[in-house]
Design goal:
This protein is α/β, with parallel strands linked by helices. The protein has a single domain, classed as 3-Layer(aba) Sandwich (UDP-N-acetylmuramoyl-L-alanine:D-glutamate ligase). The protein has 9 helices and 11 strands. It binds 3-hydroxy-5-(hydroxymethyl)-2-methylisonicotinaldehyde (PXL). 3-hydroxy-5-(hydroxymethyl)-2-methylisonicotinaldehyde (PXL) binds next to strand 1 and helix 7.
Length: 280
């Protein structure tokens, strides 16, 4: 039997517990072979650090893709995280056409904004191109900020109601995404929910956990990696959404109290829980 392989494209932030430095260990811990395509190398991530280095690897991507095509290498899932430029989004489309097995999933985490703000270096042109990529994806994992930016709807960070959440989900579905995992929904003060929405059937489900009032970088990347690992292990969208949520909550709990650790979450400490959950 040949095991399934995930290809993930995102940056390497050498220090910072985000993007590839979390995707590779998390998906691997899920028991899934993980092929990486680094889109850039940064000394740290761009949130809260200043003076970071940034080496753009965009021009390496066509050569890497051509080699894989020559070798006949194909993957069963393409999961995209933080992408550094509009051109990289175009290369993702080419990768999806050229190096995926039939039936492979395209999972897109827009990874460009949070808490009402775009990350450093992104602009409206990038947002529009990312919205187009999301429109071609099987599963997208936006947070509420990214969903509102991609649809042009109001960005509300809390006191959500179902009418607002449904307006985001329907607008994203209208752009083409088949399944939407919408993160960061706040219906109550003490809880946080993720919505799982299937565009074709319009079926909407939720997974809800306790809300921990702690802002941190990299939680979206940990979420998307655990979700992808669980999906590749054959879990349903709702099961995977729940497994990923529990994993991130545990990672945040393991980080609380360490004031020197604001750049990311200690996901390593929660990996045993994730592995146990997937082996149930
Ligand atoms: O966690 C998302 C992310 C990934 N990669 C880089 C980032 C960020 C968020 O700021 O700066 C380089």
């Amino acid at each position: 039997m040949t095991d399934q392989k995930v290809l993930t494209i995102q940056d390497i932030s050498c220090m910072g517990q985000c993007s590839l430095t979390v995707a590779l260990p998390i998906i691997s811990a899920c028991g899934i072979e993980t092929v990486i395509l680094p889109s850039a190398v940064l000394s740290t991530h761009t949130g809260g650090f200043t003076g970071f280095t940034f080496r753009d690897l965009t021009e390496d991507i066509p050569g890497i893709m051509a080699h894989w095509m020559k070798e006949g290498l194909k993957f069963d899932c393409l999961y995209t995280g933080y992408l550094g430029s509009v051109l990289q989004i175009e290369y993702v489309r080419q990768l999806a056409r050229n190096v995926l097995n039939p039936g492979a999933k395209l999972i897109v985490d827009p990874a460009m904004a949070d808490n009402g703000q775009l990350y450093h270096g992104f602009d409206e042109v990038f947002v529009e191109k990312m919205a187009e990529l999301c429109g071609n994806a099987d599963i997208i994992l936006p947070n509420v900020t990214e969903a509102s930016f991609m649809t042009g709807l109001e960005c509300r960070l809390d006191r959500h109601d179902e009418e607002y959440i449904l307006s985001l989900l329907r607008a994203l579905a209208a752009r083409g995404a088949k399944k939407i995992i919408l993160k960061g929904i706040r219906y109550t003060e003490s809880e946080i929910s993720v919505a799982v929405y299937e565009s074709e059937t319009q079926v909407l489900s939720y997974y809800t956990t306790d809300y921990i009032p702690y802002l941190s970088h990299g939680t979206g990347d940990c979420y998307a990696a655990a979700f992808t690992g669980a999906i590749m292990q054959g879990r349903s969208d709702l099961e995977a959404a729940g497994i990923a949520a529990d994993f991130v909550v545990e990672s945040i709990k393991r980080t609380l109290g360490d004031e020197n650790h604001r750049y990311g979450v200690k996901f390593e400490k929660a990996l045993p829980l994730l592995v146990k959950e997937l082996n149930r």
